[in-house]
Amino acid sequence: MNTLIHPIAPFLFPDSRLLVLGSFPSVKSRESGFYYGHPQNRFWQVLALVFDEERPCSTDDKKALLARHGIALWDVIHSCTVTGSADASIRDARPNEVQRAIAGSAVQAVFLNGQLAGRLYRANRHLMPRLPHHILPSTSAANAAWSLPRLVQAWAVLKG
What percent of the chain is modeled with pLDDT above 70? Predict the structure, then answer.
């Protein structure tokens, strides 16, 4: 297994108010060059329902949705070994320097997409922003215990 370096830049702009952090991009996300690229991941569907918008399809539409709602995206992991896209297979994770990346932005709160992202965020506090943070249920299709309505209800916290 080779070590992979996170290939996608943070989606962040100075007036981002919320930061959503996942663990590490899936194979499909790495191929598409943007976050939550696997068609079965419910992230974009959940955001669209939370904000009462159409589900974005193109990367430009996804970025526009995020921008309209002041949401920045990135991941907790800078590099790791991983088999396919499964969080359970991630080993030797090294964290991103999230605090440095958001310096100067308007980010006021952090939301972690899934338990692994939450655990790594808390374990690497020296590189993470000292802001209120919330661990949300993963939008991955592998998280079958959470129905779409339950995910939307949990993720509605993004609306404040």
Answer: 99
